[in-house]
Design goal:
The protein has seven helices and 13 strands. It is of the alpha+beta class. The mean pLDDT is 91.
Length: 242
């Protein structure tokens, strides 16, 4: 993306995909906004079509595709592509949100868990599986986001749905006194919640677990190692006024 400082407005309107490495604690909306306002400032315009192709939670970092101009028509196609993630599942404690957005609500025994059991249990989480999205998610029910229901204390039944796990690799296992850190790589279909995999993995081990870190490394053929931070893209756009 090193050439974007020289692009004309027409180039962006014809269609462009920003490969963004979303920082930790940024929302996807914030990343879109940073680029949108830079484009508006660069070209002195009031409107431009722009949107992201698949939300990343604030506590997840990594690849976010932001489509501009006519490429916004391709957002659904990008969303349907296979995603690749790396991260850590912490076995031995659970949270209501299945990640660190909420505090640990329960600790579990891990004395019966060893590496052999973990590797064997992993087999349950490959291929087509059923999973229940987290209550703390942006899915809508009854006109509200699920996380709005959760924060209001409402009891909502979230139906299970099919997703496909193409690859689930355990990269390392760190056995601690009160918890086990499972570092993984997962390649999966659209709509897969890695937080739900972490939660369900804990239950399958007759324990509890939550997602302690997550990074999206690929969407289809797009790789995070070619992506830039929102701030870097902003500086490139503003480096040459047109």
């Amino acid at each position: 993306m090193e050439q974007i400082s020289t692009y004309t407005l027409e180039r962006f309107q014809e269609g462009f995909v920003f490969e963004v490495d979303k920082p930790l604690n940024w929302t996807s909306f914030q990343a879109v906004n940073a680029i949108k306002w830079s484009l508006k400032k660069k070209f002195n315009i009031k409107k431009i079509k722009i949107g992201h192709a698949g939300t990343l939670d604030p506590l997840a970092s990594g690849l976010l595709l932001i489509c501009c101009g006519k490429m916004t028509k391709q957002i659904a196609d990008f969303q349907s592509q296979t995603k690749t993630y790396t991260g850590t599942i912490c076995i031995g404690a659970s949270t209501p949100s299945f990640d660190l957005e909420t505090a640990i609500d329960q600790h579990y025994d891990i004395a019966h868990i060893n590496e052999e059991l973990i590797v064997e249990t992993k087999k349950q989480f490959t291929g087509v599986i059923l999973q229940r999205p987290p209550l703390y998610s942006a899915l809508k029910k009854e006109g509200k986001r699920l996380y709005e229901h959760a924060r209001a204390g409402n009891t909502i039944e979230v139906p299970e749905r099919e997703v496909e796990i193409h690859q689930f690799e355990i990269e390392s296992i760190q056995m601690n006194k009160k918890s086990i850190d499972l570092n993984f790589k997962i390649q999966c279909s659209k709509g897969t919640y890695i937080r739900s995999i972490a939660h369900d993995f804990g239950k399958a081990l007759q324990s509890g677990a939550h997602l302690s870190s997550l990074r999206r490394t690929a969407i289809g053929s797009y790789k995070v190692d070619k992506a830039l931070s929102p701030e870097s893209i902003k500086k490139l756009l503003e480096s040459n006024s047109i």
